[in-house]
Automatic annotation (TrEMBL):
Keywords: Aminoacyl-tRNA synthetase, ATP-binding, Ligase, Nucleotide-binding, Protein biosynthesis. One of its GO terms (cellular component) is mitochondrion. Belongs to the class-I aminoacyl-tRNA synthetase family. Its EC number is 6.1.1.19. This is Probable arginine--tRNA ligase, mitochondrial. It catalyses: tRNA(Arg) + L-arginine + ATP = L-arginyl-tRNA(Arg) + AMP + diphosphate. It comes from Gasterosteus aculeatus aculeatus. InterPro entries: aa-tRNA-synth_I_CS (IPR001412), Arg-tRNA-ligase (IPR001278), ArgRS_core (IPR035684), DALR_anticod-bd (IPR008909), Rossmann-like_a/b/a_fold (IPR014729), tRNAsynth_Ia_anticodon-bd (IPR009080).
Amino acid sequence: FILWLSQPEDAFIPALAAVPVFKKQLSRFITYFIRPPLCNNDAESHVPRLKRDSVVEDVSAGRGVINFKVNRKLLVQKVLESFGKEEEGQFGLNSELLNTLTRGTTLVEYSSPNIAKKFHAGHLRSTIIGNFIANLKQCLGNNVIRMNYLGDWGMQFGLLGAGFAKFGCQEKLKQNPLQHLFEVYVEVNKDVEQNEEMMQAARAFFSQLEQHDSEAVSLWQQFREITVDEYQHVYKRLGVHFDIYSGESFHQQQAQQVVQKLQSQGLLKTSEKGTGVVDLSTAKDMSSVSTVLRSDGTTLYITRDLAAAIDRKEKYHFDEMIYVTDKSQAIHFQQLFHILLAMGHSWADRCEHVPFGLVRGMKTRRGEVVFLEDVLDEARARMLRNMNQSKTTKETVNPEDTAEKVGISALIVQDFRGPRESDYTFDWDRMLQAQGDTGVFLQYTHARLHRSDTVLFDPSHLLEQTSVPVLQHLLRYDEVLYQSAKDLQPKHLVNFLLKLCHLIASAHRELPVKGSSQDVAQARLRLFSGARSVLANGMKILGITPVDQM
Ligand code: ARG
């Protein structure tokens, strides 16, 4: 059926549904049109049978369509008064639609870089997408646990431990830990190619580590601690935090217990190569297996993940667990959940892998990105340069800080605009444009919107062609959050906010506050203030810190 309202915006229907009073009225018509279905010619004949009331002011027939004219004054009143009533930041969050979502404890695992290795674009994506998911879940009323699962175990520590004796320097380690660890790691990897002794030393170091040799463990611990300290500092710049810094190392012993459990449940098979595998094929003919034990008896990435998942369930009693990594790990997580289920852990059904696509060409002045800090520095430097060149830049107290926040929002918006699973090409110039659909545009719009505490205003001053669409759009906020909660795609919210900023831009042009009579100015300020609060809340969920001046 076609339902056409006096605004040429099909978003109007769900938009109206967001306000309970409109929703009730509207569902009356929707039921009416679903049966009997509306045919092209009978619009005329339906019109007299549809009642007008305080919500729907007028109903008229067009060619094959019925037009409903909504009471705009009531719409303006209802939307804007809810800003005054509800607590700051709560607009839309108590909607009936959002109340249909189940709430509970959500564990979100994200970022999860590997110690001494590169922090690549995939880790950056995991960090910001995971942070978005955690923020979203939290604002929808869940108890959220934010976890970073470090790659802090494995043969790389054998190499690092042995290599540190030859290439390492405590002084440099203190000054610039991430850089120095990475250098040592690169050096030792080169060295082992020609130097069999070094390889033996690395193996020896790792086996000392596995046997808890105190000297080896304390060096490892030092590497881990300084890495976490450094990361915490950089995450803070990015507006990201974690409740727990876990890691593969926490589960190496439990991983052996998992192997025993698999054995006792009859799930562990020995392959021709002598490795321990779990048969995942439906025909049970070993056509699809997952390796959980090396032939030398050591565990693997997936074995530690099995142990980690079981441990998290016992410790945190999560209702759902979300893993955020690039899509190349999709099979790993499928196998992980499959084995957990086979072991009888039915909660594995409530574990989800949230995959994302690859980023091409993330480079800084220093070349290929190795450290997260370099990306943030570059974003800030470029933004600062743009701000200095722009004529509209306001004097701010702290231009560095503003450039940092705006630069980061540019990174985030570039990343969140498309479908999460898609690959994209990193482009500094495009993402930092002041016009166009960028994070800079979001920040620019926010900085220009004023806050107003006026409660009393006359809605009849807001019935223009440019103000009503802003209000309709604001009403869709809860639907957008709902959709985002369903598919964990940040694009819905980003595109909603970008659209809002475009609508605000026209409203700013056509509804000046300065120079209008006091009544009109007050009503307009109320509109802009409402828009500002939705924009700010949405930005915060995305992981962006709104700036007040730029
Ligand atoms: N450290 C891994 C990497 O850099 C990501 C860890 C993902 N999480 C997990 N539970 N496996 O590829």
